[in-house]
Amino acid sequence: LVGALAALFFVDCASAVRSRVLLALSGVALAVLAFLASLGLVALAGIKLNIITMWVLPFLLVGIGVDDMFIITYAVERRRGASGGAAPSLVLGEVMAEVLAPVSLTSLINLIMFAVMARSDLSGVYETAYVAMVAVTMLWAAMVTALPALIAFDLHRQASRRSELCPCSAGAPADAGADLSERSASVLADKYCFRGAYLRALSKWRASQLLVGVLSAALLATCAVKVNDLPLGLELNDFARSDTWVEVYFVDRSEHFPLWPISMNFGALEYENPLSQLGMLRTWENVAALPEVSASPRSGLVWTASMAAWAHPAIGCVPPANALYTCGPEVDPNCTATFYPNVYGLKTRADGGVCADFASEPALAQWDGDLYAMFAFAHTNMSPVLCAIVDGFGVSCSPSNPASMSDAAASLAGYKPSGHTAFCPVLDVAPATFDTCASLWLQHDPNYALLGPEIKQASPGAFEAPVLFSQVGGSQTNAVHLYTTEDYLTLIRNTRGLCDDSGAIQPVRAAGVYDVSVGPLHCFMSGVPYDYWEQYLTIETFLLTTILYASLAAVAVACAFLACELLSLGWAATDALQGAVVGAILIAAAIAASVVSVVGLLGWVGVPLSGISAMSSLCAVGFATEFAVHITHAFLASGASAAAARAEAAMRSLFVPMLLAFLSSLLGILLLLATTFGFVLNYVFKPMICCLALTYFYGCVTLPLLLQALNCLMPKPPGASAADASKAASGATFAAPDASVKAGQMPVGEGGAARSVV
Question: Residue 546, class by beta-carbon neighbours within 10 Å (0-12 exposed, 13-18 middle, 19+ buried)?
């Protein structure tokens, strides 16, 4: 379709010699081949192609490439018509000298824009950005090298009076005197669309100027308001075709089973440290208490707590536990757990925890339930009665054996009153002993299979030492009440705040010797909600910062290019810098307005913001750059000083090729309506059609008016005629085209010099 449109605009019904259909088709094919070549190149580099690459980039990048082709080819046609039979090499050289700068500028800004996108941490986004950067480079190279070569062949064909239908045949008879007034669609578009309507509305009809200004401001304001309140989320059912069982499944699942399994993970910790074990337990209990999380009320799902209970003589070695397995001390006496003060306020056994509350324990009444205070007292006052008491709390002691009593008293050295009445089992041993006990726990405790800590095993039945990764929660932990994207984001924020970003875990009080903090622990959540929906936490920030960085880059690059271009045209240094700065700011403003309007409009039409719609929206940077850079450059380099004359010179050479670029991209996008894939219609078609329409409106309608309004900020070009300055001061509108100039040819200025066409 794009090729057919190009052929329609470049066919010459009056002359097979002047017709340039084959050149137009070759230019379109060149853009397509350059894009396909970029896909092959990135594939060789190992970059995977994704849904964004295949559904978004072809419309954007091929459209940009075809736009450059139209601008270069149309400029050659106009220059050839005004050259008076100049040599083809001279015509092509003059055109390329004029268009190389704006074509290169648009490509460079697009390249920088995609480089900014590559800073995303989403693989689909940054891989697409890599592909786009390669494609932009390939398209630029094709348009400034291969396309001029094709144009040179075509110019030589025309100079030799050879027919386009059979270029190898002898020269065709001259067509001098033929009526060439309406020989192609491009001439008709120039005559009726540009001169008949666009030119009048742009400069002569004040009401239309006011209407465009008000409409542009209202559109930008309305869309900007919505940018701060965008719907978020690409649901899984959006990837399914409409009216299929896959779509029905995901819709019903979200409605009736709004949950996903999740896991809490820990990295390389000092697992043998009692504070680390209690910190893991505290982190788990905090997350399990969230309303968005459904988990077993038992804290024994934390594998370090379960292993400590297995290794504690007063817990794992007594009925009914010892009926299920052989406890730690019975397997290896070194695998003996102890009690540690509940410094972090963990749940007690009455609430489903693993910690014991001794506040009402008769044996500890003398010490107000403080087990450590009793241990400290027994260290210096061991007796058969105390021996029996400490033995009941996991310290091996036989009242009938003085040696055992002496050993028990010695083992209690170092204990001090803690001020706590609740104590938790911990395995406080050396790192090597802890690793050995962990492997023994794997072999002897059937609870390991229920917990599934996912610790790497060096061999069957033996953990790899040291432990570098583990999970807690088992298969009984789920995220629940996940009906909307905001529900997922609430889950992610709350759980990561208590796990990933929790910081150091503080004791419930800071009065005792054991009340110290631990951490931060290397904790992180995982599961489908985190793998998929977490992208929406930062997508708004990513989109807005990308718009900002792309606009700033456009200002810097455009300013440098325009300054160099204006200096090459003989402008004074200060005038060139002033004109370049104003032009660059206007280019950046057009880009920013286009992107903000596209994003906001998508919010109003109900397209949720996702990685795919964000990439589609950022395509506005590419289209807006293509329109704004060429128009601003042509306005500054036109050679006139009056606002109306500058706008006329710029749009006279750019209106038709930009209309062609708009129509060719529109045709490609409209083809998406034939699909039954709802995802394509909602997340590709809507963003792309909004992007194309808004960028064309801002670039080809609003920007020329803005350039005229701000012409007073731009220096006059060197050599501007006094008559032109007088017209600008009196507010004269565009002059009528010279009737002696044939349609489709460029007017000739004073002294026969051809007016700049780009």
Answer: buried
Work out the average pLDDT over 261-267: 93
Q: Say if residues 192 and 202 touch (Cβ distance below 8 Å).
A: no
731 pLDDT more than 50: no
Residue 124's contacts (CB-CB under 8 Å, 6 or more residues apart) are 50, 51, 52, 611, 612
Tokens representing residue 416 in the block? 């001090």
Closest CA to 614 of 554, 536, 729, 526: 536
Higher-confidence position of 446 and 51: 446
Instruction: Say what the pLDDT of residue 88 is.
Output: 79
Q: How far apart are CA 450 and CA 99, in angstroms?
A: 70
Q: By three-state DSSP, how is residue 339 classified?
A: strand
For residues 464 and 590, what is the distance between their CA atoms, to the nearest angstrom?
A: 59
pLDDT computed for residue 592 by the predictor = 86
Identify the residue with better confidence: 401 or 182.
401
The DSSP call for residue 715 is P
Neighbour tally for 185: CB within 10 Å: 17
Which residue type, as a one-letter code, is found at position 579?
A: G
Distance CA 352, CA 348 (A): 6
d(CA 247, CA 233): 16
* For residues 330-341, average pLDDT: 92
Residues in CB range of 477: below 8 A, 6 or more apart: 261, 262, 263, 264, 288, 293, 294, 295, 296, 301
Kindly report, residue by residue over 408-434, the tens digit of the pLDDT. Answer: 999 898 899 999 999 999 999 999 999
Nearby residues of 116 by Cβ (< 8 Å), 6 or more positions away: 546, 549, 550, 553
Tokens of 64: 């940009």
> What's the rounded mean pLDDT across residues 169-180?
51
Task: Give the CA radius of gyration of the chain.
Answer: 38
Task: Please state, in angstroms and rounded to a whole number, the distance separating the CA atoms of residues 743 and 713.
Answer: 34
The tokens for 14 are 């009056």
**Token pair of 44, please?**
């060789």
pLDDT, mean of residues 493-509: 92
Per residue in 11-35, pLDDT (tens digit) is 777 777 778 888 888 988 998 999 9
Sign of the dihedral defined by the CA atoms of residues 71, 73, 74, 77, in that order: positive
pLDDT of residue 337: 92
Which residue carries 């010695």 as its tokens?
A: 410
| Burial of residue 610, with CB atoms counted within 10 A of its CB: 0-12 exposed, 13-18 middle, 19 or more buried | buried
Q: Is residue 493 packed enough to be buried (19+ CB in 10 Å), middle (13-18) or exposed (0-12)?
A: middle
CA angle 707, 713, 717 (to 5 degrees): 85
- Candidates 196, 152, 198, 307; CA nearest to 654 is 198
The predicted model scores a pTM of: 0.70
Mean pLDDT of the chain: 82
DSSP 380-435: HS--HHHHHHHHHTT----TT-HHHHHHHHHHTTT----S-SEEEEE----HHHHH
Say if strands 462-463 and 523-527 run parallel, antiparallel, or are unpaired. unpaired
Task: Specify the pLDDT at position 158.
Answer: 82
DSSP conformation letters of 184-241: SHHHHIIIIIIIIIIHIIIII-HHHHHHHHHHHHHHHHHHHHHHTT--B---GGGGSP
Distance CA 56, CA 381 (A): 81
Which of the 8 DSSP states describes residue 300? G
Q: Interior CA angle at 4 toward 633 and 90, to 5°?
A: 45
Q: Where are the beta strands (DSSP E) in 238-299?
A: 260-266, 293-294
Separation between Cα atoms, residue 88 and residue 98, nearest integer Å:
16
Which of the four pLDDT bands, split at 50, 70 and 90, describes residue 191?
confident
Q: Tell me what pLDDT residue 749 has.
A: 36
Higher pLDDT, 561 or 724: 561
